[in-house]
Protein backbone atom coordinates (compact mmCIF):
# COMPACT_ATOMS: atom_id res chain seq x y z
CA UNK A 1 0.00 0.00 0.00
CA UNK A 2 1.12 3.57 -0.48
CA UNK A 3 0.10 6.96 0.82
CA UNK A 4 -2.93 6.33 2.96
CA UNK A 5 -2.73 2.83 4.37
CA UNK A 6 -5.58 0.39 4.78
CA UNK A 7 -8.28 0.71 7.40
CA UNK A 8 -7.19 -2.36 9.37
CA UNK A 9 -7.02 -1.45 13.04
CA UNK A 10 -6.43 -2.79 16.52
CA UNK A 11 -9.81 -3.10 18.18
CA UNK A 12 -9.32 -1.82 21.67
CA UNK A 13 -8.73 -3.40 23.82
CA UNK A 14 -5.89 -1.99 26.11
CA UNK A 15 -3.61 1.04 27.22
CA UNK A 16 -1.06 2.84 29.62
CA UNK A 17 0.33 6.25 30.74
CA UNK A 18 2.70 8.49 32.79
CA UNK A 19 0.87 11.27 34.59
CA UNK A 20 1.72 14.89 34.54
CA UNK A 21 4.91 15.38 36.53
CA UNK A 22 7.00 15.28 33.38
CA UNK A 23 7.72 18.62 31.72
CA UNK A 24 7.41 19.15 27.99
CA UNK A 25 10.75 19.44 26.25
CA UNK A 26 11.27 22.78 24.57
CA UNK A 27 11.43 22.62 20.81
CA UNK A 28 14.99 23.91 20.61
CA UNK A 29 16.21 20.87 22.63
CA UNK A 30 19.63 22.50 22.64
CA UNK A 31 21.40 19.76 24.54
CA UNK A 32 21.08 17.36 21.60
CA UNK A 33 23.62 17.58 18.82
CA UNK A 34 22.32 17.52 15.26
CA UNK A 35 23.41 14.20 13.75
CA UNK A 36 20.73 13.10 11.30
CA UNK A 37 21.20 9.47 10.38
CA UNK A 38 21.69 8.57 6.74
CA UNK A 39 19.69 5.41 7.46
CA UNK A 40 15.94 5.13 7.13
CA UNK A 41 13.80 5.33 10.26
CA UNK A 42 11.48 2.33 10.58
CA UNK A 43 8.15 3.43 12.03
CA UNK A 44 5.23 1.22 13.03
CA UNK A 45 1.72 2.68 12.86
CA UNK A 46 -0.90 1.10 15.13
CA UNK A 47 -4.32 2.40 14.03
CA UNK A 48 -6.18 1.03 17.04
CA UNK A 49 -9.82 1.69 17.79
CA UNK A 50 -9.77 2.93 21.37
CA UNK A 51 -12.55 2.28 23.88
CA UNK A 52 -13.42 4.01 27.15
CA UNK A 53 -11.71 1.14 29.02
CA UNK A 54 -8.09 2.09 29.76
CA UNK A 55 -7.11 -1.48 30.67
CA UNK A 56 -8.47 -2.83 27.39
CA UNK A 57 -6.68 -0.15 25.37
CA UNK A 58 -3.46 -0.83 27.28
CA UNK A 59 -3.53 -4.53 26.42
CA UNK A 60 -3.91 -3.72 22.73
CA UNK A 61 -1.03 -1.23 22.84
CA UNK A 62 1.16 -3.70 24.74
CA UNK A 63 0.54 -6.25 21.98
CA UNK A 64 1.39 -3.58 19.40
CA UNK A 65 4.70 -2.90 21.16
CA UNK A 66 5.61 -6.59 20.95
CA UNK A 67 4.61 -6.75 17.28
CA UNK A 68 6.51 -3.56 16.41
CA UNK A 69 9.69 -4.87 18.03
CA UNK A 70 9.34 -8.19 16.23
CA UNK A 71 9.03 -6.31 12.92
CA UNK A 72 12.19 -4.27 13.58
CA UNK A 73 10.51 -0.93 14.22
CA UNK A 74 12.39 1.85 15.96
CA UNK A 75 9.30 3.96 16.66
CA UNK A 76 5.65 3.04 17.31
CA UNK A 77 2.78 5.51 16.93
CA UNK A 78 -0.70 5.09 18.39
CA UNK A 79 -3.68 7.32 17.57
CA UNK A 80 -4.66 10.45 19.47
CA UNK A 81 -6.10 9.54 22.89
CA UNK A 82 -5.39 5.91 22.06
CA UNK A 83 -4.95 5.02 25.72
CA UNK A 84 -7.82 6.92 27.35
CA UNK A 85 -10.29 7.02 24.46
CA UNK A 86 -11.13 10.18 22.53
CA UNK A 87 -13.86 12.28 24.19
CA UNK A 88 -17.04 12.55 22.09
CA UNK A 89 -16.11 9.27 20.40
CA UNK A 90 -14.96 6.44 22.68
CA UNK A 91 -16.35 8.28 25.70
CA UNK A 92 -18.65 11.23 26.28
CA UNK A 93 -16.05 13.20 28.24
CA UNK A 94 -13.09 12.81 30.56
CA UNK A 95 -14.83 13.39 33.89
CA UNK A 96 -14.95 9.67 34.69
CA UNK A 97 -11.33 8.89 33.75
CA UNK A 98 -9.43 7.22 36.57
CA UNK A 99 -6.30 9.36 36.70
CA UNK A 100 -4.31 6.82 38.70
CA UNK A 101 -5.22 3.98 36.34
CA UNK A 102 -4.25 6.14 33.38
CA UNK A 103 -0.90 7.05 34.93
CA UNK A 104 -0.14 3.46 35.85
CA UNK A 105 -1.01 2.26 32.35
CA UNK A 106 1.23 4.92 30.79
CA UNK A 107 4.12 3.96 33.04
CA UNK A 108 3.74 0.25 32.33
CA UNK A 109 3.69 0.76 28.57
CA UNK A 110 6.65 3.13 28.65
CA UNK A 111 8.59 0.62 30.73
CA UNK A 112 7.75 -2.15 28.28
CA UNK A 113 8.93 0.00 25.37
CA UNK A 114 12.10 0.95 27.25
CA UNK A 115 12.98 -2.69 27.89
CA UNK A 116 12.44 -3.41 24.21
CA UNK A 117 14.53 -0.43 23.02
CA UNK A 118 11.52 1.06 21.22
CA UNK A 119 10.41 4.69 21.06
CA UNK A 120 6.69 4.83 21.86
CA UNK A 121 4.50 7.81 20.91
CA UNK A 122 1.36 7.28 22.94
CA UNK A 123 -1.90 9.17 22.63
CA UNK A 124 -3.12 10.03 26.11
CA UNK A 125 -4.37 12.92 28.25
CA UNK A 126 -3.41 14.70 31.46
CA UNK A 127 -5.51 16.44 34.08
CA UNK A 128 -4.01 19.88 34.69
CA UNK A 129 -6.67 21.40 36.92
CA UNK A 130 -7.70 20.67 40.48
CA UNK A 131 -11.20 19.51 39.51
CA UNK A 132 -10.36 17.76 36.22
CA UNK A 133 -13.60 19.15 34.89
CA UNK A 134 -14.46 20.32 31.38
CA UNK A 135 -11.43 21.79 29.61
CA UNK A 136 -9.31 20.73 32.59
CA UNK A 137 -7.19 18.30 30.60
CA UNK A 138 -4.51 18.45 27.95
CA UNK A 139 -4.54 16.26 24.85
CA UNK A 140 -1.12 14.61 24.86
CA UNK A 141 1.42 12.67 22.87
CA UNK A 142 3.60 10.94 25.45
CA UNK A 143 6.95 9.97 23.98
CA UNK A 144 9.18 7.57 25.89
CA UNK A 145 10.67 4.12 26.01
CA UNK A 146 14.05 4.33 24.34
CA UNK A 147 14.12 8.10 25.00
CA UNK A 148 13.49 10.14 28.14
CA UNK A 149 9.75 10.38 28.73
CA UNK A 150 8.24 13.72 27.71
CA UNK A 151 4.71 14.99 27.16
CA UNK A 152 3.62 17.10 24.22
CA UNK A 153 0.35 18.99 24.77
CA UNK A 154 -1.64 19.50 21.59
CA UNK A 155 -1.34 23.16 20.60
CA UNK A 156 -4.04 23.66 17.97
CA UNK A 157 -7.44 22.53 19.25
CA UNK A 158 -10.59 21.91 17.25
CA UNK A 159 -13.79 23.63 18.43
CA UNK A 160 -14.89 20.26 19.85
CA UNK A 161 -11.55 19.76 21.58
CA UNK A 162 -12.06 22.96 23.54
CA UNK A 163 -14.99 21.38 25.39
CA UNK A 164 -12.52 18.95 26.98
CA UNK A 165 -8.97 20.26 26.64
CA UNK A 166 -6.80 23.30 27.01
CA UNK A 167 -4.05 23.95 24.50
CA UNK A 168 -0.34 23.52 25.00
CA UNK A 169 2.22 26.19 24.25
CA UNK A 170 5.48 24.39 23.48
CA UNK A 171 6.93 22.25 20.72
CA UNK A 172 8.61 18.94 21.46
CA UNK A 173 11.54 17.58 19.45
CA UNK A 174 13.45 14.60 20.83
CA UNK A 175 16.75 13.15 19.58
CA UNK A 176 16.98 9.41 18.89
CA UNK A 177 19.29 7.29 16.74
CA UNK A 178 20.63 10.30 14.87
CA UNK A 179 17.13 11.66 14.19
CA UNK A 180 15.23 14.56 15.73
CA UNK A 181 11.62 13.49 16.23
CA UNK A 182 9.04 16.29 16.10
CA UNK A 183 5.58 15.64 17.57
CA UNK A 184 2.19 16.90 16.41
CA UNK A 185 -1.41 15.90 17.04
CA UNK A 186 -4.25 15.86 14.54
CA UNK A 187 -5.51 19.45 14.03
CA UNK A 188 -1.94 20.73 14.48
CA UNK A 189 -1.51 19.80 10.81
CA UNK A 190 -3.75 22.71 9.85
CA UNK A 191 -1.71 25.22 11.88
CA UNK A 192 1.27 26.36 9.83
CA UNK A 193 2.99 28.00 12.84
CA UNK A 194 2.91 24.73 14.80
CA UNK A 195 4.66 22.84 12.02
CA UNK A 196 7.04 25.75 11.41
CA UNK A 197 8.09 25.64 15.07
CA UNK A 198 9.08 21.98 14.66
CA UNK A 199 11.15 22.81 11.58
CA UNK A 200 12.77 25.73 13.43
CA UNK A 201 13.70 23.23 16.16
CA UNK A 202 15.45 21.24 13.41
CA UNK A 203 13.07 18.27 13.38
CA UNK A 204 14.12 15.57 10.91
CA UNK A 205 10.70 13.93 10.90
CA UNK A 206 7.14 14.87 11.81
CA UNK A 207 5.35 12.20 13.86
CA UNK A 208 1.61 12.95 13.83
CA UNK A 209 -1.03 11.06 15.81
CA UNK A 210 -4.72 11.70 15.18
CA UNK A 211 -8.34 10.91 15.80
CA UNK A 212 -9.77 12.18 12.53
CA UNK A 213 -13.22 10.63 12.59
CA UNK A 214 -16.86 11.45 13.15
CA UNK A 215 -19.52 13.23 11.16
CA UNK A 216 -18.15 14.80 7.99
CA UNK A 217 -20.48 17.61 6.85
CA UNK A 218 -19.22 17.09 3.30
CA UNK A 219 -18.61 13.34 2.98
CA UNK A 220 -15.45 12.48 1.09
CA UNK A 221 -13.85 15.92 1.33
CA UNK A 222 -11.64 15.15 4.33
CA UNK A 223 -10.70 11.76 2.90
CA UNK A 224 -9.20 13.61 -0.04
CA UNK A 225 -7.89 16.67 1.78
CA UNK A 226 -6.05 15.18 4.76
CA UNK A 227 -3.56 13.01 2.81
CA UNK A 228 -2.91 16.01 0.57
CA UNK A 229 -2.30 18.18 3.63
CA UNK A 230 0.18 15.64 5.00
CA UNK A 231 2.00 15.64 1.67
CA UNK A 232 2.12 19.45 1.61
CA UNK A 233 3.48 19.69 5.17
CA UNK A 234 6.19 17.18 4.30
CA UNK A 235 7.07 18.93 1.05
CA UNK A 236 7.08 22.53 2.30
CA UNK A 237 9.55 21.66 5.08
CA UNK A 238 11.38 18.92 3.13
CA UNK A 239 10.73 16.67 6.13
CA UNK A 240 9.29 13.14 6.11
CA UNK A 241 5.98 12.71 7.91
CA UNK A 242 4.31 9.67 9.50
CA UNK A 243 0.60 9.89 10.32
CA UNK A 244 -1.27 7.44 12.57
CA UNK A 245 -5.04 7.81 12.60
CA UNK A 246 -7.73 5.86 14.38
CA UNK A 247 -9.27 2.99 12.42
CA UNK A 248 -12.74 3.68 13.83
CA UNK A 249 -15.55 2.86 11.38
CA UNK A 250 -16.22 6.57 10.87
CA UNK A 251 -12.56 7.52 10.31
CA UNK A 252 -12.16 10.13 7.60
CA UNK A 253 -8.93 8.71 6.23
CA UNK A 254 -6.36 5.97 6.78
CA UNK A 255 -2.88 6.23 8.24
CA UNK A 256 0.05 6.93 5.94
CA UNK A 257 3.55 8.30 5.43
CA UNK A 258 5.28 10.72 3.06
CA UNK A 259 8.93 11.41 2.30
CA UNK A 260 10.69 14.79 2.34
CA UNK A 261 9.53 15.47 -1.23
CA UNK A 262 5.88 14.96 -0.22
CA UNK A 263 5.69 11.64 -2.04
CA UNK A 264 3.55 8.88 -0.54
CA UNK A 265 5.60 6.00 0.83
CA UNK A 266 4.76 2.31 0.54
CA UNK A 267 4.06 0.29 3.65
CA UNK A 268 3.88 -3.35 4.64
CA UNK A 269 1.33 -4.82 7.02
CA UNK A 270 2.38 -6.89 10.02
CA UNK A 271 -0.85 -8.12 11.51
CA UNK A 272 -2.70 -4.99 12.61
CA UNK A 273 0.40 -2.79 12.25
CA UNK A 274 1.66 -0.90 9.22
CA UNK A 275 5.42 -0.60 8.81
CA UNK A 276 7.08 2.18 6.85
CA UNK A 277 10.73 3.11 6.30
CA UNK A 278 11.17 6.89 6.27
CA UNK A 279 14.19 7.99 4.19
CA UNK A 280 16.40 10.60 5.83
CA UNK A 281 16.19 14.16 4.51
CA UNK A 282 19.85 13.88 3.55
CA UNK A 283 19.08 10.99 1.20
CA UNK A 284 17.50 13.44 -1.25
CA UNK A 285 19.30 15.96 -3.48
CA UNK A 286 20.59 19.14 -1.82
CA UNK A 287 17.87 21.12 -3.59
CA UNK A 288 15.37 19.94 -0.93
CA UNK A 289 17.54 21.27 1.87
CA UNK A 290 17.58 24.65 0.14
CA UNK A 291 13.78 24.52 -0.07
CA UNK A 292 13.68 24.01 3.68
CA UNK A 293 16.15 26.83 4.34
CA UNK A 294 14.24 29.21 2.07
CA UNK A 295 11.00 28.40 3.85
CA UNK A 296 12.58 28.81 7.29
CA UNK A 297 13.86 32.23 6.26
CA UNK A 298 10.24 33.38 5.84
CA UNK A 299 9.38 32.62 9.47
CA UNK A 300 10.51 34.79 12.39
CA UNK A 301 12.85 33.04 14.80
Write the layout of secondary structure elements.
Elements: E1 41-45, H1 54-70, E2 75-77, H2 99-116, E3 119-127, E4 137-145, E5 150-153, E6 173-176, E7 179-185, H3 192-200, E8 205-210, H4 221-236, E9 241-245, E10 256-258, E11 268-270, E12 273-278, H5 286-296
Parallel strand pairs: 1-2, 2-3, 7-8, 8-9
Antiparallel strand pairs: 1-12, 3-4, 4-5, 6-7, 9-10, 11-12
Helix pairs in contact: 1-2
Give the gist of this structure.
This protein has 301 residues and is of the alpha/beta class. The chain contains five helices and twelve strands. Helix 1 packs parallel to helix 2.
How many runs of DSSP E, i.e. beta strands? 12
Radius of gyration: 17 Å
Mean pLDDT: 89
What is the multimeric organization of the chains shown?
single chain
Percent of residues in β-strands: 15-25%
Task: Write up this protein.
The chain is α/β, with parallel strands linked by helices. The chain has a single domain (41-296), classed as Carbon-nitrogen hydrolase (Nitrilase/N-carbamoyl-D-aminoacid amidohydrolase), CATH 3.60.110.10. The chain has helices at residues 54-70, 99-116, 192-200, 221-236, 286-296, and strands at 41-45, 75-77, 119-127, 137-145, 150-153, 173-176, 179-185, 205-210, 241-245, 256-258, 268-270, 273-278. It has a seven-stranded mixed β-sheet with strand order 5-4-3-2-1-12-11. Strands 6-7-8-9-10 form a five-stranded mixed β-sheet, covered by helices on one side. A hairpin with a 2-residue loop joins strand 6 (173-176) and strand 7. Helix 1 runs parallel beside helix 2 (99-116). The longest helix is centred in the middle third of the chain and has 18 residues, at 99-116. It is globular. Residues 6-35 have low confidence and may be disordered.
Amino acid sequence: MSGAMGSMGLVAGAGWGALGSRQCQMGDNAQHAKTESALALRVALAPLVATADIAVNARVIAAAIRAAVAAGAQVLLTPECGLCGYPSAARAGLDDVNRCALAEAEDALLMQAERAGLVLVLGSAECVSAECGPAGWTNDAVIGGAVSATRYHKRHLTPGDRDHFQSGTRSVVIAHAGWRLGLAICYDLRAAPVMAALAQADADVFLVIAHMAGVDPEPGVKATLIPQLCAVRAAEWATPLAFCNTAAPDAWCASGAWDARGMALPSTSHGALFMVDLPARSSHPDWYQRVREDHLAQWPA
